[in-house]
Amino acid sequence: MGALIADEGAATVWDALRTGRRPRIPEKGPVDTYERRFERWRAQAAGVDPDTLLSAAAESGIRLVVPGDPGWPSQLDQLAEHRPYALWVRGVHDLRHACLRSVAVVGARAASAYGLHVAGELAWALAERTWSTVSGGAYGIDGAAHRGTLAGGAPTVAVLAGGLDLSYPRGHESLFADIAARGTLVSEHPMGTSPTRHGFLVRNRIIAALTPGTVVVEAGLRSGALNTARHAQELRRVLMAVPGPVTSALSAGCHRLLREWRAVCVTDAADITEHVAHIGDHMRPGTGTAMARDGLDEESRRVLDAVPERSGAGTATIAATAGIDLDAALGRLGLLAAGGFIERTLSGWRVRSGSSGDTGDRVRP
Amino acid sequence: MGALIADEGAATVWDALRTGRRPRIPEKGPVDTYERRFERWRAQAAGVDPDTLLSAAAESGIRLVVPGDPGWPSQLDQLAEHRPYALWVRGVHDLRHACLRSVAVVGARAASAYGLHVAGELAWALAERTWSTVSGGAYGIDGAAHRGTLAGGAPTVAVLAGGLDLSYPRGHESLFADIAARGTLVSEHPMGTSPTRHGFLVRNRIIAALTPGTVVVEAGLRSGALNTARHAQELRRVLMAVPGPVTSALSAGCHRLLREWRAVCVTDAADITEHVAHIGDHMRPGTGTAMARDGLDEESRRVLDAVPERSGAGTATIAATAGIDLDAALGRLGLLAAGGFIERTLSGWRVRSGSSGDTGDRVRP
Fold first, then answer.
1. What is the CATH code of the structural domain delimited by B74-279?
2. Nearest-neighbour CA in chain A from B119: distance (Å)
């Protein structure tokens, strides 16, 4: 469906589903699968009345934001065919704006007192530095992060796995009311949709994609937070983990991320903003990538300029071109790689295709 | 003095100090500094009677081990001019043998209950896997590590900063008696020497050099354990850190090591042995390096063989030569670098000169 909408546009696809006139077959995938899927979509679409959905939502203060709208968070475009078709949004903030300076703070539902304390403190201290948080609205770490951000006076974004009218979990009904009043509630599902296990997992990609970095506060080895962490890595966002006592199973997932060098170790809000601010405070609209080259500090930009587009270059060559010493270059290259600007290939460092650092971006708007 | 002994041999230097006949001037350093130092050493040597020292030590069950003795831990030779001239040793174990499968476990003196628990548990679990510990005999983490190892039935090595007859700190008198009975006490200072602040710091180089890896269990930002960590890094040993609550100042040093990618995150004994065993269980005598190429696993050895001696090579070239895939090669290269076998240079990976992987070592004994 994502590929079809990308090819044909949402209006054309909707029209096709209502009339039964299939658009031309997309190039990917076998024809019979496509035909079967199209019939399934038709059946699903048959029960949908967009006008009723929209007017019921509007009565509950819920609006629909679609790609191309001014409030559409263009960093989601990096999800490509997994980009949400649209987002239902409730709250006072423009969603895109609320995520400009944001960090995803995620973790276990059955968190420990330690985890709840750390999540709340981090979110509060981030809010003091005017950074907002994005999380999943669940019990435990998610809730502590949302509350900490609101207490610190910044907006928080809760990405829910069901309809925004349902308040799942029930115990967060008043928290969600607070978020609607002082932050933003988001879902890709229309009103009335109950969350499913699958829904929670695919929701995590949105949390990771909305933010330049994800912090895992407390996570067991099988925690859903590690799913969000994997999305953050795949999207080349900064992945951070908070350590905890090695005697706590709830920190085992964080420690594994650290042990495998997948996440950087962060212990306070200053650590976190250092990592994401290096990459740039700004999300740039309209490029299909999340992080803006223009938001990089001077030295990182010099290093990025020294990284070739196609054939890779060694660290020494890049350091020499950028005119900085090798240690500094190594540090910057690491940060740029963590930020998805560049990648290490067989032949050395090169600009990641499709990243904000690529050719198209060299010409400043 | 270290350089002089290396050039002339200890017996010649001692003879010169007693007679006042200066050996030829070493090439390094200005002549007048050398002459002033020589006179200072003469004055110090004047009060020393080796025979009395040795016989008094022997009466206390303390023996002197010097470079070249069968029990000399040749991994200390990597300290070059900072190698101890000799070591006073007390205990049932051959010092070299006691360090064959050992890990340095270090940390804060004013440790928390968490740190003491973790140090003791780690040391005990390492002992169960027949790994011994080396530490500094201090209160806190050191003491917990020594005790844990003894409880687990393995020998432990305490490297003290003063004479072995002094039992510093006093409260560890019975612990030191246990170690003398079931492990080894070591000092580079003769009987009667009180430890000094400087003595504690230079002692740390021996702890790091005796072992293939150092684990920092709990350390504040200004902890002496971070000094041992720096020695371990400079000696290219594996540096490991145990995370803890971010709310604890006593874990801040460990977290800094993790944040700066200087140490690997370890949470249990299996993590630790995985990191040091990859590098090799065996210390090889007589090479001036700590870790034996022969102790490497098959794949690491293939990768090491594929790393050039002089001009560096890229990861892809090395992977191709070794016949393993790029990801596996990257992992092995990281471990080999952590183990001091290879280094990353301007032109790529190459064998570290003086390492167990260098030319002299390619011809197996």
1. 3.40.50.450
2. 11
Supply A167's token pair: 């308040």
For A28: left if phi > 0, alpha if psi spans -120 to 50, otherwise beta; the answer is: beta
Domain map of chain B by residue range? 2-48, 74-279, 293-362
| Chain A residues inside the 8 Å CB shell of B262 | none
Q: Is B223 within 8 Å of B150 (Cβ atoms)?
A: no
Distance from CA of A130 to the nearest CA of B (A): 22
Name the pairing type of β-strands A213-216 and B132-135: unpaired
pLDDT in tens, A235-275: 989 999 999 999 999 999 999 999 887 898 999 999 999 88
DSSP for B96-162, please give it: HHHTTTEEEEE--SS--HHHHHHHHHHHHHHHHTT-EEEE---TTHHHHHHHHHHHTT--EEEE-SS
Burial class (CB in 10 A: 0-12, 13-18, 19+), A161: buried
Query: Which residues, in sequence order, are CB contacts of A152 under 8 Å at separation 6+?
Result: A123, A124, A125, A126, A127, A128
Q: pTM surpassing 0.80?
A: no
**If you ran DSSP here, which 8-state letter would residue A187 be given?**
E
Q: Test B266 with A245 for CB contact under 8 angstroms.
A: no
Q: Using one digit for the tens of pLDDT, what is the confidence trace for B30-71?
A: 777 778 888 888 888 888 888 999 999 999 999 999 998 888
Are the C-beta atoms of A219 and A242 separated by less than 8 Å?
A: no
Which chain B residues touch A273 with a CB distance below 8 Å? Answer: none
Q: Given CA atoms A252, A253, A259, A263 in this order, what sign does their dihedral have?
A: negative
The kind and range of the H/E element at B265 are strand B264-265
Q: Give pLDDT < 50 ranges for chain B.
A: 280-291, 355-365
Instruction: Round the CA-based radius of gyration of chain B to a whole number and report it.
Output: 21
Taking the C-alpha atoms of residue A348 and residue A346, their distance in angstroms, rounded to an integer, is 6
DSSP A94: -
Bridge-based pairing state of the strands A238-241 and A213-216: parallel
Q: Which two tokens stand for residue B19?
A: 């007679």
Q: Is the ipTM of this complex over 0.90?
A: no
Domain B293-362 falls in which CATH fold?
Answer: Arc Repressor Mutant, subunit A (1.10.10)
